[in-house]
Write a structure and sequence with these properties.
By secondary structure, the chain is of the alpha+beta class. Helix content is 31%, strand content 35%.
Length: 213
């Protein structure tokens, strides 16, 4: 579980500090040109390497979400999230440990079709990892699977002896386990100010009113 203070979400490890660990930063924004570049600059200035970055629409029309994965100490992550929230188009930013989110990554594997057809063991291994064929050609077959990074990495190791041709993995997608309050308040704000009467950027400057948990 996590808690909030000064409109920024903190994790339970707050009091103890500690070394680097993996954090997932979730940012809700308006979809404006140039915002991604400004957010990227915040990371590069602090020499923070981004392990994964995904952007997608959210459940609310016109609101997008960034999902960013980094390895850093919590104090640095907390300060970074504060800086992200200062961006004009940003409505809310959270950071969470892996225990506080539900997350998946998608992976594609290209392997020689004759290896799959001739070796029953490979087919059995693919089933064990929940992989399914998305493209089957005479020369190669492409399989798809989803899971955590260690799971998709493990399948790479399994397929290498059978002539793995190509491997690619998507960025992380994640749902915050305890974020229902944010979603409900955002929808409630939309219901109370709908339609053409709403001015552009109606959420801006109202973070305390709308997004305080």
């Amino acid at each position: 579980m996590s808690f909030t203070n000064n409109n920024i979400q903190y994790s339970p490890a707050e009091a103890g500090g500690g070394g680097k660990q993996e954090y997932t930063i979730t940012v809700y924004t308006e979809n404006h040109i140039g915002l991604l570049n400004r957010i990227a600059i915040l990371f590069s200035r602090r020499k923070i390497n981004v392990e994964s970055l995904n952007t997608s629409p959210s459940e609310v029309e016109g609101i997008h979400r960034f999902t960013i994965v980094i390895n850093e100490v919590e104090d640095v992550v907390r300060k970074l999230v504060r800086q992200i929230e200062k961006q004009v188009e940003v409505l809310k930013a959270y950071y969470n440990t892996t225990d506080e989110i539900v997350w998946q990554e998608l992976a594609l594997y290209k392997v020689p079709t004759d290896e799959i057809a001739e070796k029953v063991k490979v087919e059995r291994l693919l089933r064990e990892f929940g992989a399914r064929a998305v493209v089957i050609r005479k020369d190669y077959t492409v399989f798809e699977t989803t899971g955590h990074r260690e799971e998709t990495d493990k399948l790479v190791q399994v397929l290498e002896p059978y002539g793995l041709i190509e491997f690619v993995r998507s960025a992380r997608v994640a749902i915050i386990k305890a974020s229902s309050g944010f979603h409900e308040k955002l929808k409630e704000f939309e219901r109370t100010a709908p339609g053409a009467e709403v001015k552009e950027n109606e959420f801006l400057g109202k973070q305390d009113e709308v997004f305080t948990m």
